[in-house]
Design a protein that fits this description.
By secondary structure, this protein is α+β, with helices and mostly antiparallel strands. The chain contains 7 helices and 8 strands, in the order E-H-H-E-E-H-H-H-H-E-E-E-E-H-E. It starts with 30 loop residues before the first strand and ends with a strand.
Length: 290
């Protein structure tokens, strides 16, 4: 299922299966707050301004679909291959860029997704982080929740263009390759895991109408349980979102994704299937704030 090549096809992005919603985050990298209640909450080249033409929208639609599918495609088709991210930097991290800031998280939600972000650079970073979690969650694999997520986080124009494309992309054949049933549910006795965890964020451009935010993430994807042939694995990736301010909130106009940066793997032994299943069911997600 090749949907595009602007950095979002099966040969790029998250390797080894990385989709979705992930667990905790380092306090020194980003500040978090638990969601209200006990629910477990879990793109496209630059889009021209009004009057930019249909060609930009068409490209945005295709890339948008691929951004959301790349990790699952890699997971569904993964083999023994591996790749190294040779990109390195000698610059030291800026403490101000990674330390938590003072504005408290939003207290409003649209469904299970945080909303009502501040009309500030920090608010844009908070929005991008929470949108990344929603788009990387297991809800994207079920049509009803996917439609709601897309309508919530994208601009109306982008959402209208993406819905049909996504329905086609998340078809029965694709879900079968991922190990799921045609309705997006996991086989009996197994738990499907798809979590994305923002590790940090930064704004690379900002004005009152638009913002471009990069979110560095880690992710988990796979089927947990005895007899799983697609065990849960981890990945690292960076998502860049171009946001627009409309109707008193931030929305995604377009986004892109690249692999890494990934740290060296530690010596922690892999958990058993039951431990992973219990962790996924027992540990809830977060509402993220910059």
């Amino acid at each position: 299922m090749s949907l595009g090549d602007d950095g979002y096809g099966p040969d790029s992005g998250r390797q080894g299966g990385d989709y979705g919603e992930f667990g905790g985050t380092d306090r020194h990298l980003t500040r978090t707050r638990l969601p209200e209640g006990e629910a477990d909450p879990y793109g496209t080249p630059r889009r021209a301004r009004a009057g930019g033409g249909m060609s930009s929208r068409n490209v945005m639609t295709i890339v948008g679909v691929v951004v959301l599918l790349i990790a699952a495609i890699a997971f569904a088709n993964r083999g023994d291959s591996s790749s190294d991210d040779g990109d390195s930097t000698s610059s030291r991290p800026n403490g101000q860029a990674t330390s938590p800031t003072g504005t408290k998280p939003v207290d409003a939600k649209t469904g299970e997704i945080a909303s009502g972000f501040a009309h500030t650079e920090q608010g844009a970073q908070s929005a991008a982080s929470n949108f990344t979690v929603a788009l990387g969650g297991d809800g994207m694999f079920r049509s009803d929740t996917r439609h709601s997520i897309v309508d919530t986080v994208y601009t109306p124009d982008a959402a209208a263009s993406l819905q049909g494309q996504m329905d086609k992309a998340y078809g029965a054949d694709f879900l079968k390759n991922v190990g799921l049933n045609p309705d997006g549910s996991a086989p009996k006795g197994l738990t499907f895991v798809s979590r994305t965890v923002p590790v940090g964020s930064k704004a690379t451009a900002y004005n009152d109408d638009e913002a471009t935010v990069e979110v560095w993430c880690t992710g988990l994807v796979g089927l947990a349980g005895q007899g799983s042939t697609k065990p849960v694995s981890q990945t690292w990736f960076t998502i860049s979102q171009k946001l627009r301010w409309m109707n008193d909130d931030w929305k995604i106009a377009s986004s892109s994704q690249k692999q890494g940066p990934a740290p060296v793997s530690g010596d922690v032994p892999a958990a058993g299937a039951d431990d992973i299943t219990n962790a996924v069911k027992g540990f809830g997600g977060f509402t993220y704030a910059r």
